[in-house]
Amino acid sequence: HYRYDRLVKLGPQVVRLRPAPHSRTKVLSYSQKIEPALHFINWQQDPFANYQARLVFPEPMREFKVTVDLVVEMAVYNPFDFFLEPSAEQYPFTYASGLQAELAPYLVKEKPTPLLQAYLDRVDTSKQRTIDFLVAINQQLQKDIAYTIRMEPGVQTPEETLTKASGSCRDTGWLLVQMLRHLGLAARFVSGYLIQLTPDVKAVDGPSGPEADFTDLHAWCEVFLPGAGWIGLDPTSGLLAGEGHIPLACTPQPSSAAPID
């Protein structure tokens, strides 16, 4: 919801708040209400098949509001329930040449800056189960990078996030994307919803989960594993993406996944 202190003329707005086609959590219904009512809307899919609504407003306005009504089936699924091709069961592995070409945008690495290189040098790259390797990196980031809410636009560079040892979900997600690419794995940035519901039964031991139902915009990372496809890793929590992670836009760069442009 945007409010302006005078009448403003908005240029075209691109809204990415509709669940992506590959969401593992079943979407039962989705609707989007745009205010002001006088607008033109074109539903599109970007080059990566994410849904986006392009809005054009012919008249000046004092407010711009997007209201999403979403119903999903929060059936629990096991995020480890996938198979890997025999060639990808152990890390390190290499993608087949045809697949490597298709994954090219998700393998583009930024120049390794000093702290990023030092952090990469600490990663255990000895032969091991691929899933153990990914879980270890995801959990290490969760321990090393403190979570903070940042209202500033844009995403920190990996070097900034490591220098501050803190960042928002989008900063840590982008750091993980870049780390995985430097380690030879295709990775993409994900903008989405995180839905957390209070448990029906309190845990006897261990963490009891959220005290109240909670929904917010979130960001994480997906890695491509032959045989399994795209697997979500959330370095903010150190967990694999589950039924509460609803992807909206998955792209090679964070800039093309922003909820509203």
Please outline the helices and strands:
Blueprint: E1 2-8, E2 13-15, E3 26-35, E4 40-45, E5 51-56, E6 61-73, E7 90-91, H1 97-102, H2 114-121, E8 128-129, H3 130-144, E9 146-147, H4 158-164, E10 166-167, H5 169-182, E11 187-196, E12 214-225, E13 229-234, E14 239-240, E15 245-251
Parallel strand pairs: 9-10
Antiparallel strand pairs: 1-6, 2-5, 3-6, 4-5, 7-8, 11-12, 11-15, 12-13, 13-14
Explained architecture:
A 5-stranded antiparallel sheet has the order 14-13-12-11-15, with helices on one face. A 3-stranded antiparallel sheet has the order 1-6-3, with no helix packed on it. The protein is α+β, with helices and mostly antiparallel strands. The longest helix has 15 residues, at 130-144. Helices cover 19% and strands 34% of the residues. The chain is built from 5 helices and 15 strands. The model has no long low-confidence stretch (mean pLDDT 94). β9 (146-147), α4 (158-164) and β10 (166-167) form a beta-alpha-beta unit. It is globular, with a radius of gyration of 20 Å. α2 (114-121) packs across α4.
